[in-house]
Batch of 4 targets.
Target 1
Amino acid sequence: MLTTTWHPQFDNPNFLGWSVVAAYLLAAVFCGRVALRTDKSVSEGGRIWWLLAVGLLFLGINKQLNLQTLMIVMGRRAALAGGWYESRRFVQTIFCAAFALLGLGLLGFFAAYPKRFIAENRLAFAGIIVLLSFVVLRALTINHANELFGVDLKDDHWAWALELCGAILIALSAAAAAKSAAFRDRGKA
């Protein structure tokens, strides 16, 4: 059946769904806390912690509101209106390839640019890798591109595990960074 509607509702109103949302929001709060405490002279780290806080907040909200379904519904409507609905699989494949390249680009950015941040926050970097992997794999399954590669990702347990693991790694790293920043602040006083 063709889904052509979307309305805001809780998409994962179960214990595991709310656990993932809580992990995202807790990690976002910890990242924001570190960003606020980050020394002004270490602006690179502060910007990255803010970026992580906003990204994790978005992932937490999206987990329950299922905004990717809204995007799919809008894409289907555009395909129907534009007369290219029959070619949608090709467009989905192009979208997934572009999305995967964007994910690789972000990973490359994090691996190359903020070297000091990564050296000091290896758990956060591992969490970023895990969450980027989740987002790219989820995009592949939503758009059926995984079928082109003969990969069956229908079991969602991998998704829950990646989301929880990524958010927890980032939260642990942020908590350690906040503790370290608080220790440095006490030493300056």
Target 2
Amino acid sequence: MTQLNGAVVIVEALSFTYPDGQRALDGLNLAIRDGEKVGLIGANGAGKSTLLLHLNGILPCSGPSTSLRAGGIRVLGMKVEKANLKAIRQSVGLVFQNPDDQLFCPTVGDDVAFGPRQLRLPEAEVAARVEMSLAAVGLRDFEARSAFHMSFGEKKRVAIATVLSMNPKVLALDEPTSNLDPRSRKELIRLLRQLGGTQIIASHDLDLVKTLCDRAVLLSKGKAVAEGAPEKILSDTALLEAHGLE
């Protein structure tokens, strides 16, 4: 597989077909540099979420055995395959679109501590990571709260904290601003800017991509059909219209 200077994620000729025959990715090539914020844009079914699920091996390693994949992915030099999944899942923090898919423990503190505890870290280290992660998302002293009684925006922040507690090298976020009111949306964008680091953001929120990202990648039918500065990509109305975004 090709190695690119400074790339922490390399996707090469990646194709993926679901068991029902839907081809979600079709020979996709993409490289993400260290510290870069990349916005994945595209119409529904373009392959954005499928790509994110490949980055830490949710697809196809734990997917249906009849799914078909070709090509490869490397994260921090590691091939995404079963032998490397533990290390890769510590390196890539995946935040789902719906935080209710990510939060399942009785308290916020337990949710944020879940990943570190799976690593069998000392409880003092777990507690320190919980405190650090909740502080990073603006939810200090929320450990005893139940996520089920929090606002949707607060749940999104807790979901981000659950992956921050693993000290990931890459944050992968699926539609982070979906279903948020205007104030919560602005707060989340501010939070993502403050967090820094390498971020891969799949979103229909084109203003988010323009505001936050260093590069936009337009996916269409599982292929990367255009990429570049967000201002350039998002100002090309003919390109966006041709691929279902206008």
Target 3
Amino acid sequence: MQTRRPRLAPQLKPLDRPLALSDRVYHTLRQLLREGRMGAGDRLREVSLAAQLGVSRTPIREALARLASEGLVAVEGRGYVSRGVSSDDVENIYELRFLLEPTAIRQAAATARDPKSHAPLAAAVRECASADRAGDADAFMAGNARFRSVWLAMVRNRQLVRAIERYASHVQHLRRMTLSDPSVRAVALAGMTRISAALAAGDGEGAARAMRDQLTAARQALREAGGAARKRVRRAAPKRTRRTAART
């Protein structure tokens, strides 16, 4: 005798499942790292982080291991430290960006030419322009990130998008290093405007060229920012040496 399966009411929908605790801890710590709230070399202590987040050490340990696999933190001894972004990191990340992002945005042009699809891109550009006029670097970065997420959502090759998002946390951190500079924001805004116009016209090749130019300008800004930071360190080093000598 066959057992009849119960019929579900047609209005039932799959239930939303909340993120596991380790996932929530991971996303929280990754966001802090992306925003630059943890400096390079800062030790990430499991006990302290667990106390601050109100969780046990196990989800902290799992989250830190995931962040280490992404290169956002480094293993040091028996613990973890926040990784800075070295000049080699910048070059490696931008080598990937030049390979992937022009191809991706060329695909996005097929969707972005539709006025309804393009509207969020234009809104993000206006948001950045308004933030730039107000001198609000945080608002500019938020608009810039929104522009990026909108056009990535238009890319049909989702494997390509996942490859690009693999280094998204690093890119966010790099933006924070440079977009506080008004001159860098002006270049970024001009690039976004040019990319947006090419996408609105359905010009994939034009969008790809604009993206390559934008990446070139962004990499140069980071090289200059890194060079300035190294000079500050060298200038400060003799002062520390003299202070140490005076105490001995």
Target 4
Amino acid sequence: MKIVIQRVTKAKITINHSLEREIGQGLVVLLGIEDADEKEDADWLLKKILHLRIFDDENGIMNLSVLDVKGNLMIVSQFTLHASTKKGNRPSYIRAAKPEKAVPLYDYFLQQALQSLPQTKSGEFGAYMNIALENDGPVTIIMDSKNKE
């Protein structure tokens, strides 16, 4: 699994031009699932996300997690994170998991996140979405469960 984490002061997602979901201070997590991913990948990444010390403490030092600041999560499926651009100009998404593999893993990731942060919001797998966010810092972090070391 690959993720892009953005620390935000607020974010809003519009799904299929109508349904809207919003969060305040927290993290927007773009989640890309590939065929080789399993629940263990989701568990490892979610633990890292929840405990990353990327929010400022009282001294302005990034020393607090999203749990510490009682922040929010917004989780959005993003198959394009697995784009290969090695050949030609059209990205290939051959490494991205097909829906029959990706949907259950995305749902699992979301359910696990909701257990830790019940105010977690999400996109909708396979839907057209627009995300408006205010990146705080800016702080943007990329992680891959296949590169744990």
